[in-house]
Design brief:
By secondary structure, this protein is mostly helical. It has a domain of 30 residues. It is 71% helix and 0% strand. The chain is elongated.
């Protein structure tokens, strides 16, 4: 005699551990790294061509990196607190 509880549950469409999600994360990381490399190359080119901009560009890059770091930490904390 089987009860309703013995039957397996249907797949949950909101399950966050699906292979598609892992692929999206990998694609997001690759896109971020590619974008960072392109922006870094652009900043390096401008700094080499115009050395007087090295100081302001360094400060701007540091500020943007700080904002991305804070956003990354917040996303990580929110993602881990859901579990």
């Amino acid at each position: 005699m089987t009860s309703v509880r013995d039957e397996p549950l249907p797949p949950n469409p909101t399950d966050h551990r699906t292979p598609a999600t892992a692929l999206h994360v990998a694609l997001g990381i690759f896109t971020f790294l590619l974008l960072t490399a392109v922006i870094g190359a652009g900043l390096l080119y401008v700094t080499v061509r115009h050395p007087s901009l090295a100081g302001p560009l360094s400060v701007a890059t540091g500020g943007i990196a700080l904002i991305f770091t804070i956003a990354g930490v917040l996303v990580t904390v929110m993602a881990t607190s859901r579990r």
